[in-house]
Write a structure and sequence with these properties.
2 copies of one chain form a homodimer. The first copy, chain A, is of the alpha/beta class and about 400 residues long. In chain A, about 45% of the residues lie in helices and about 20% in strands. In chain A, the strands form 4 sheets. Chain A has a 5-stranded mixed sheet, with helices on both faces. A 5-stranded mixed sheet of chain A has the order 13-12-11-14-15, sandwiched between helices. In chain A, α2 packs across α3 (about 40-55). Chains A, B: This is ROK family protein.
């Protein structure tokens, strides 16, 4: 129970709010900012001056056909090429590294394929080499203000330790620390669950903009989830919140990698769909393309594929119904392979939802596919990495530009 | 996206924070307040002076053996008898009305038994009559600052409409409006789901003090729930959050009052336990005492009762495991009949939890019985009713003491 903020806290909050506004919604005139943030024009001017001096935004004449006659109103624009973060994704089949500028612009990216089960040290090496080459190519006065990595496992908030990653044999490796050392930028690398980042991303820039209570479900080899409640990622007591893939929907059902049976992951994951469709991995088919092939076959009337989608859709429907009852979300977003499964089994999912969820929380919930496609994790990692500079813009930049941190080019 | 608070907002926030501190933790010296709230002594003095002038707190010499030699430090104490709320509980078998003073002191209460299925108008009449008699007995200068009612149903946040109350035939009655009119105090009566209030109560004054991520499960004829995430009641998009009783734990299982099958409520509710134990309501046994009788019989070695508890405990374990995976709570609290069932089936619940939940979110979760016993809903209603005055103490009191509100005695 803490007291209210000081004057200095208020200024910091206002600077962060203005910067967040142009970061998420794009360039805006002072008039728009004043109205949207509920501050007067002179306060906006002072805040913009501070952010400009720090090199976080610039003011310029509006571009394009929006210009009107008379004295044009200046537009506040984020310094996308000068202020950036590094976003990393460790996927089951790929590694992605991106340099993302303030405003959410992907400035540059590297992608490497990865064989399942590869060595953690090798992963760190690939990510660090990719990132260093991106940094070398950045502008001379550009500043990296954060770094974050999305990982398909259970991550403890206190120390970013990976507690459970059945689909990657990563052990107890402190992935963030190892990557941070190899990068040599003097910046920590935060590690987050990939589906939690997906929820952040869809909330900030995807299907969930404007919806402060949403659930993101991500399918891959495993099934992950992220919950936004009251506009905030629901982390729970230690940051493990959102392990929706291990909600038991079918007690005594199919065995799960976690040791339990009938988990959502075991009933709707990639392997299960392929097994139901007689397209097991033994036949050389796995991953996203194999899932799409089943959905396409069902579309063409293939009975086995349709039955497989129906079974998987039923359990996905039970999972969604439970989440609707427990959390009353305004929106459920399906990403990864669950995007394809949702598109192929929407009628069955909605049918189970109609009987399995109470009318009150069900009537207004929307079901949607992820708007950010395969980049949900990466976009979420970038947003996570920007969090610190958005919370305290001047302080973070001052620290990074200080002489002792000259390694941060 | 709003800008930071003004000076006036900060003062209001600080007044509320100080008042909330003595409301929840009891009388405190200025030194304790300064340290706990992170404010200097002169600010604490000014805030205390404002709250004293408004009649919300008083300063006095410390009581009892805590006094030491030298100049005694004054203690700030909430004005419990002068500032109060009305808390109402509509239970399945009883109606309770209480006058609760600032600081959480139950000053006075009335209780009436109620036959299941009684007329909504009759309920409102009984509650209003009880409340008026409590108000008449209050001190001459006492002020009622809020009123709230706990109800075993699904309540829409926007207008307090009751959307689903299968165990009470209340229809679409705007219970809060009706009660507010009958009271004639010029105060609205908020209506909340009873188990949501239970979660608030256990978090504020019960088993969950200090734990900002907890789940409260309440058993009665139905099973309800309330979720506290990041210290706040998780309402979801429309206030229906926490309908844990309708999470399907056993697909195709026992029919539920909601129309679905295998809901937690259907598998662990009072009627199911009694049916499993061959003590169905037809034999004249129902309610809390009947549940206790089963637990007692199991304790004495009754095989049928033990088997009944084992079955119910299994499904309760699945429900808790799912919640632990999805929400990573630090604490799960069992209230109402689930308190007794938990005490009788703890080993089975923990056994299912051990296999059904991931190790990471499971290892630190604590399972506890409700500390507030049968008063969780009532205490929660009082806390809910106090929320407004704690958010803006001076403003609320000024409004209530204004001449045109003379009906508020």
């Amino acid at each position: 129970m803490r007291a209210g903020p000081s004057q200095e806290d208020v200024r910091r909050h206002n600077l962060g709010t203005l910067l967040r506004f142009v970061h998420l919604r794009g360039p805006a005139s002072r008039a728009t900012l004043a109205e949207s943030l509920g501050l007067n024009r002179s306060t906006i001017m002072a805040l913009t001056a501070d952010l400009t001096a720090a090199g976080l935004v610039r003011e310029e004449l509006p571009r394009g056909p929006g210009r009107r006659a008379g004295r044009p109103s200046l537009v506040v624009r984020p310094e996308s090429t000068r202020v950036y973060v590094l976003a990393f994704e460790v996927g089951v089949d790929r590694l992605v590294i991106a340099r993302v500028g303030l405003g959410g612009v992907v400035l540059d990216r590297r992608e490497a394929s990865r064989t399942r089960g590869s060595d953690p040290a090798e992963i760190v090496g690939t990510l660090a080499a990719g990132a260093r080459s991106l940094v070398r190519k950045s502008e001379r006065d550009a500043v990296c203000v954060g770094a974050a990595l999305g990982f398909p496992g259970t991550v403890r908030r206190a120390d970013d330790a990976i507690r459970f990653g059945p689909n990657l044999d990563i052990g107890d490796l402190p992935l963030g620390d190892a990557l941070s050392r190899r990068l040599g930028l003097g910046l920590p690398v935060s590690v987050c669950n990939d589906a939690n980042l997906g929820a952040l991303a869809e909330h900030a820039r995807g299907a969930g903009v404007g919806c402060d209570n949403l659930i993101y479900l991500h399918g891959d080899v495993g099934v992950g989830g992220g919950i936004i409640a009251h506009g905030r990622l629901l982390g729970g007591d230690e940051g493990y919140g959102g392990e929706i893939g291990h909600m038991v929907v079918n007690p005594g059902g199919r065995p799960c990698a976690c040791g339990s049976r009938g988990c959502l992951e075991a009933e709707v994951g990639e392997r299960t769909l392929l097994a139901h469709a007689d397209r097991a991995e033994a036949h050389g088919q796995s991953g996203r393309d194999a899932v799409r092939a089943v959905v396409d076959a069902a579309d063409r009337g293939d009975i086995v594929a349709r039955e497989a989608l129906h079974r998987v859709g039923t359990w996905l429907g039970f999972g969604v119904a439970n989440l609707v009852n427990v959390l009353n979300p305004g929106l459920v977003v399906f990403g990864g392979t669950l995007r394809d499964i949702y598109l192929g089994a929407a009628a069955q999912i909605r049918s189970v939802l109609a009987t399995g969820a109470l009318a009150a929380p069900r009537e207004k919930v929307r079901l949607r596919t992820a708007a950010l496609g395969d980049d949900t994790t990466l976009v979420g990692a970038a947003e996570f990495a920007f969090a610190e500079v958005l919370a305290d813009p001047i302080q973070v930049l001052a620290r990074l530009r200080a002489p002792e941190d000259s390694s941060v080019h």
